[in-house]
Amino acid sequence: MNRTAYSLIGVAAALAAVTGVATLTTPSGEPAAGPAAATRLPVERSTLVCPQPASSEVGETTYTAYTPRGGTAREGAGSGAGLLPAGSTLEGGGRGGEDGRRADGPEPVVPLKQPGVPVSAEADSSGSPALTGSADGSLAPGWTVQQTTLVTAGTGRGLLGVSCTAPDTEFWFPGASTAASRHDYIHLTNPDDAPAVVDLELYGQDGSVKTESGEGLNVPGRSTVPVLLSTLSREPVENVVLHVVARSGRIGAQVQSLDDRLGGDWLPASADSRGSLVLPGIPADATAVRLVVFAPGEEDADLKVRLATPTGAITPAGQETLHVKSGTTVAVDLGDVTRGEPGSLVLSPADGSRGARVVAALRVLRGKEGRQETAFVPATAPVRERASAAGSDAAATNSRDGGTILSLVAPEKAAKVRVTASAGSGGGEPVSRTYDLKAGTTTAVGDLRPEGAEGRYALTVERLSGGTVYAARTLSLVEDGIPMFTVQTLPDDRGTVAVPRAEQDLSVLVD
């Protein structure tokens, strides 16, 4: 037998050991007809990265962690979830002693003990680090962490919220800026031991913006590097798209936008698509909305613009279609497009074809001159099965002046969803409600909260039937007459993964 045959036998044996389900033959003794269909199983490990909060002497940050009850997660020993400062050893997540402390390192932030019950903790924003961590076992499927910072004065004052994200190798941020009034930082956090090498690219209305020092940035293992975007470009640019690419390794990336007059918030990465893009959760009392769109590929994009309102889809006046030239950024001011009703923006190929690849985000303002506040709404992925957002305050009122609003969008076809308000971090009982979503509409839910809840709670959206569903959650409060708010989209939590069954075919070993 030659060396190749020995190698192939070793590979086949290794596959059998790894999968644990490989079979040599069918019960009849004949070779198997083909690979079995993949099955969906709960993920067994999830990793998240939380950026360093806005550094302010008058800032307070709250972290809330949550894993929804699913009934399919693997139970038993080895389950744990927690976050640690980026420079700490992460293996083991939140596991440790009975009090949640690690025996070999610092105490984890918001360590979970069971699905369905959120955990919340507060921190002083002036010295809080970036956090990274993992959830294992039954706490991994759907694990989410919300970071919310209240800054009451100074540049970027407002409510700054972000859902901690999974590390990746590429991100698009439409709606960033290097203008003189803006102080936008990209936070690059490396959760792994090995260093990562990252390139930063800026694109404006005329295409690529020349950068001075955006190539080959080194992000050491288990560390975070903030970069002020205005230091990358020679001239200030009002509306830019930031492209973040990891040449090696993986990173978490979030843009923190701070404005001298308009407050601040986190700008999450946009989803990209050749089909429709949905930007859910524009507040009813939005006073100004700016859409920023970019076409990353080699094709120009012609887009149809629609607003999904509570009663149906309409076309914003004067903005029926939008042409985006390949490699360029287009910014469109839509004004008070919602006109007193909650809404969501839907972008789709104008000619009904598959269309060009695009990314997009909204900058949304609330309030009047001198007392305005900013939030960002990126294009997001749909809720295919389930998605959650943590960090809602059970003590806040559900009104225009504060509390939680959940926006549910069915852009094309009618759909049915179930929404669950979890127990609170300080107690209470979960409450679930089913909603029928009409095609082309946005449904705003502002009255769903746990019974007797105290502390922070989470909202979980489950798609039950019908068409595609998108969702976003808005947190708001009024501080010194300023309507502060932040919007987090709810992409699918990817709590399950398709696992194919492997079968051996030893015919490949026969010469």
Would you kindly provide a written description of the structure presented here, covering whatever features stand out?
By secondary structure, this protein is mainly β. 3% of the residues lie in helices and 47% in strands. It has 1 helix and 37 strands. The protein has one helix at 3-19, and strands at 39-42, 45-50, 59-66, 80-85, 109-112, 119-124, 131-136, 144-151, 158-163, 170-176, 182-190, 196-204, 207-209, 217-219, 223-228, 240-248, 252-259, 263-267, 272-273, 277-282, 286-294, 301-308, 313-314, 321-324, 329-335, 343-349, 358-366, 373-378, 386-393, 403-410, 415-421, 431-437, 441-445, 456-466, 470-479, 482-489, 496-499. A hairpin with a 6-residue loop joins strand 27 (358-366) and strand 28. The radius of gyration is 24 Å and the shape is globular.
Task: Please give the alpha-carbon distance between the first and last residues.
Answer: 9 Å
Low-confidence stretches: 1-35, 90-103
Got a strand count? Answer: 37
Give the DSSP E fraction (strand runs of 2 or more residues).
over 45%
Report the mean per-residue pLDDT as an integer: 86
Count up the helices. 1
What is the rounded Rg? 24 Å
Principal-axis shape: globular
